[in-house]
Amino acid sequence: MRLLDAVATARRLDPVALADAVEALLRDPSVQVPERLVQPLPGGGSLFVMPALDGRLAITKLITFTPANAGTARPAIQGDVVVFDTATGSRVLLLDGPAVTAQRTAAVSLAAARRLAPVPHGPLLIVGAGVQGRSHLEAFARGHGVREVRIASRTPASARSLAEHAISLGLHAQVVDDADAALAHCPLVVTCTPASGVVLRGPVRDDAFVAAVGAFTPKMVELDATLCRWFDAHGRIVVDTTDARHEAGDLLQAGLDVARYATLADVVRGDERAAAGPVLFKSCGWAGWDLAAARCALAA
């Protein structure tokens, strides 16, 4: 069995290759993804047990999510992804859980954006300058050729650090104090915060693509309810999987019927392209994305 640390895991998960792997997985009828187990932990954290399999591999993602670690030296997400060969039962790979989570979440957003974003090249607004902010910055720069990014964060030092990273990649980067004010200039938007409160109220552009990835429980929220209802009435809402019906806090708190929205699988299998008008892509996470990452890591 090969054991990969965070750096080695990330190196094997090129965002474009991983976005391709996500789409390939959604077309694969052999994929099975049981419902994930989420066990509350003392102190407000959660233990996630997330299995998935196809005709060749079986994976289990075992991670903890500890919101209280935000702003400390300890990461909010810790754990591993174990990859097994289904024929022999042997462990073949151990991947770093936080690195997989960061890379595959950004790759899912990239896959959705390249199918649905009316203006895929940006400029890009990133709200939240943590691990997910960085992975989305890299994915959209690599996969969409984004050259200009604006960054908003409740922690100015984190925003400046991410802007410096963007500049090191050859991008033009600007830290902004008001995310809503930046929406007029940015047709691409990603919200990737701890989802402890509303960070985006709008209004958004008529050609906007917003990927909201921070909230993955009914009680978490990043988007104002009025903004969600505006997308429902005037644009298009797509969710990552059917599990969003009971996980998409932004949409559920807005009183919307999440079950009636198309999923990314519907988009990929129907070969739908960018639609006219604004698009909200709500991502909650799914073990299938981790299986796609395991495939990608093995192929690399």
Overall geometric form: globular
Number of domains: 2
The overall strand count is 16
| Lateral arrangement of strands in the main beta sheet | 9-8-7-10-12-16-14-15
InterPro entries: NAD(P)-bd_dom_sf, ODC_Mu_crystall, ODC_N
Protein name: Delta(1)-pyrroline-2-carboxylate reductase family protein
Organism: Ramlibacter algicola
Pfam family, one: OCD_Mu_crystall
Quick overview:
Pfam families: OCD_Mu_crystall (PF02423). Helices cover 35% and strands 26% of the residues. With 300 residues, the protein is of the alpha/beta class.
Would you mind describing this structure in some detail?
By secondary structure, the protein is of the alpha/beta class. The protein contains 10 helices and 16 strands. The protein has an 8-stranded parallel β-sheet with strand order 9-8-7-10-12-16-14-15, sandwiched between helices. Strands 1-6-5-4-3-2 form a 6-stranded mixed β-sheet. A two-stranded parallel ribbon has the order 11-13. The chain starts with a strand and ends with a helix.
